[in-house]
Amino acid sequence: MVLAAGLGNRGLAERLGLHAPVVPNRGQVLIGERTARFLDYPTLNVRQTDEGTIQLGDSMEEVGFDDNVTTGVLANIAQRGVRTFPVLAGLRLVRAWSALRVMSPDGFPIYDESTRHPGASSPPATAASRSLPRTHSASHPGSAVRRGPKRSASSRATVF
What we know:
Oligomer: single chain
Radius of gyration: 18 Å
Number of strands: 8
Shape: elongated
Strand order of the largest sheet: 2-3-1-4
Helix content: 10-25%
Low-confidence stretches: 126-160
Order of helices and strands: HEEEHEEEHHEE
Distance between the termini: 10 Å
């Protein structure tokens, strides 16, 4: 059994004899209208889809379970985007949103195997339950390249 309850893993893990101190971390994103290609590779805070849509965002906020968007953070994201890529200055925004990431205290994966319930394990918190788009989270802090799954010698099961 592998825990995959997102932010609910903390409470569920305790009931199974595991330690998964996951916490919410809010990220906010601005989506701009489609525009001619100008960005071939994503940066830490600006990406362009194949269709030309612009995604801006790099916030990491410790605000509990508050998933509301805030104008101050969105304004900072927009200003940094335009400073970095002046071509964005006249771009119309289509929408803004926020979501909660599931993060460990240090941003690294959590691996734990229950001694009370053999076979129960917690997967990497930062890899298993991202809420932001893959293109957004792939270059975010806490999303570093990770080793693949390891094999448990006792059960021959894959432990993530």
